[in-house]
Amino acid sequence: MDVRAPQNRRRLVIGGILGLMTLSILYLIAPSPWTTYDHRRQGFVAPPSDAALISSTGTGPVGPPGTGHEGWRVLMNDRPTMKFRDNLRPDLRYITTWPANGWTNQVINFMNVIYLAQITHRIPIIPRFRPVHIPGDDTPHRDFGDVFDVPALSKALGMPILEWKEVKDLKSTTLEDVGCWDIQNYRWENDGAWYLDPPVDIKLDVSYTLAPEWTRQNGDGGSDPSTLMWGFASLASFPHWQPLPIDPSPKHHTSLPPDEHMFCTNSLYWGIANLEEAYEKSAAWHAVGEHMMWSTEVRDVGERYTREVLGVRADEPIPPYIAIHVRRGDFGMWCQTPQNECFAPLDAYAKRVEEVKLALAEKGIVADKVIVTSNEGDKGWWKDVTKLGWLRLDHERTTREHGPWYPIFIDAFIQGEATGFVGTSTSTVSMLAQRRVEGRGGVSAMVKWGKKGADDH
């Protein structure tokens, strides 16, 4: 018997472990695809062999100086083209998604796809916001960059971020075929098309492949449509060889498998398992959401309206204040009891406001003024708000001055920039505002609802 055999085996095991550790360390310290990314030019620093990609004339960047997009052509082949495929570089990989639900859920969707781009080393292409909850058929879509500072976000994350208007000419009439993933584990009975399909201005005819069950929180097809982000990321990182059923596209009736160059999926809003319970632990929020700063226009208008409602002069700093978000209106469809028992009364919000005031006072902060935001349309309810001494904005004026999108933008700005915040439990509008306020060192509280006395404590 060779007494050295056990020792040799131990050496092999130890050597294997050390080898795996070395590979892991090398992977962690290896430069990412964004190592040569130049934040000032919103593009990659092109090596000499790719210099022609910077400008067709060879004279320098084609983007307007000072816009943060001077080097955008190194991320694509040309200015926006009639076909998106003509503009994709063969050596780069891209990822996109479609907007669905209300504006806040679209923000979460875009936040999730940027995070997915981070962990799969793809370039995210963000579509326009879709006016799902805004009355009127003539409401225009709004660019992501109209609301958020894309160059600043790109710089903070150290990665490129594109918008669809930079890839495909939105005036194009060319309908292109593409295969995408459907991450929903059920089909919406009503208005399914707007939930599954891309905005009409992108002109895509999509055939969908239902994502495998192992990418979903409830793989058995239950009622929870949440996607497991890392499970889904594997589809974007590695070719999926197992054949899966494909739903043909609605126009050309093509049946294309999911595109590997332009990885696409319908709404990634459900990109966090158990959204309400896990949101504060969301990797996407901490990796991306915290860095999503308002655009200059939204910040300027938001600060002006905030000063006006608080009675502060234009040359004075905005003082600490408390913002309230009362979600009513559309939440009525979730009520199992009469709405006057289902929705929390204003007294419940008033109690939470006092708790927030006390918590701020312990930090040496005085916040006496309260601004209320809500989707409630009942004038009598708003009169009760006024009786409490709380403030509100005139969004009829906001719409006249800035269009139908700005009541949503201004409310989100005021909520997120507050020192104290009181929101409505389970509302994603309140969740995002809560994360913003707490991230800036503020104090927040949520009001429970659903039955009479739900928030009693």
TrEMBL record:
Transmembrane segments: 12-30
Pathway participation: Protein modification; protein glycosylation
UniProt subcellular location: Endoplasmic reticulum
Keyword Transmembrane helix in record: yes
Gene3D superfamilies the UniProt entry points to: 3.40.50.11350
Single Gene Ontology MF annotation: peptide-O-fucosyltransferase activity
InterPro entries in the cross-refs: GDP-Fuc_O-FucTrfase, OFUT2-like
Pfam families: O-FucT
Keywords, sorted A to Z: Carbohydrate metabolism, Endoplasmic reticulum, Fucose metabolism, Membrane, Transferase, Transmembrane, Transmembrane helix
One GO CC term, this protein: endoplasmic reticulum
Entry keyword annotation includes GTP-binding: no
Annotated GO biological process: fucose metabolic process
Similarity comment text for this entry: Belongs to the glycosyltransferase 68 family.
Protein name: GDP-fucose protein O-fucosyltransferase 2
